[in-house]
């Protein structure tokens, strides 16, 4: 008797699997504790101090805002999890660029308004190697603020049409 070939396994989206694993872990152990970012890099919290975010320009980037959903914190590149903002480095139209500039300026204002907390996302990094965190202040999501102001959308994969 010839053994039959095994049925091919279905491809699993790693983003979905990661989210499912996190939900299972949270159900068993509760949600992760936020990391207070009040003067130290996200990977080494608790050293004290405060941040002043500049607008990122050419050259070295240390603590600055790249765009509405990406910033540098003490040399670590951070991607705000769960939102997507218009592109300013490679926009598809002028409307996207203009809205992206507004999103960047607003994120800079929000980051400079006081202490922030970095809460772990579904996975540690995105496909570009940026650390993923939900960014909050006093329990309020900065990403949710941008979505509410029309400067971002909830991230669902793919690229929204801002044009």
UniProtKB/TrEMBL annotation:
It comes from the Bacteria. Pfam families: SNase (PF00565). InterPro entries: SNase_OB-fold_sf, Staphylococal_nuclease_OB-fold. Residues 65-152 form the TNase-like domain. This is Thermonuclease family protein. It comes from Sphingomonas ursincola.
């Amino acid at each position: 008797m010839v053994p039959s070939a095994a049925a091919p396994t279905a491809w699993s989206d790693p983003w979905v699997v990661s989210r499912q694993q996190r939900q299972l872990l949270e159900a068993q152990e509760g949600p992760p504790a936020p990391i207070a970012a009040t003067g130290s890099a996200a990977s080494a919290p608790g050293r004290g101090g405060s941040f002043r975010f500049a607008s990122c320009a050419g050259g070295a980037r240390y603590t600055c805002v790249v765009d509405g959903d990406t910033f540098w914190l003490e040399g670590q590149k951070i991607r705000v999890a769960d939102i997507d903002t218009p592109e300013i480095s490679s926009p598809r139209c002028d409307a996207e660029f203009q809205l992206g500039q507004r999103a960047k300026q607003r994120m800079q204002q929000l980051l400079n308004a006081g202490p922030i907390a970095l809460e772990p996302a579904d996975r540690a990094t995105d496909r570009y190697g940026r650390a993923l965190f939900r960014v909050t202040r006093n329990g309020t999501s900065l990403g949710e603020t941008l979505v509410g102001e029309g400067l971002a959308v909830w991230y669902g994969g793919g690229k929204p049409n801002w044009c």
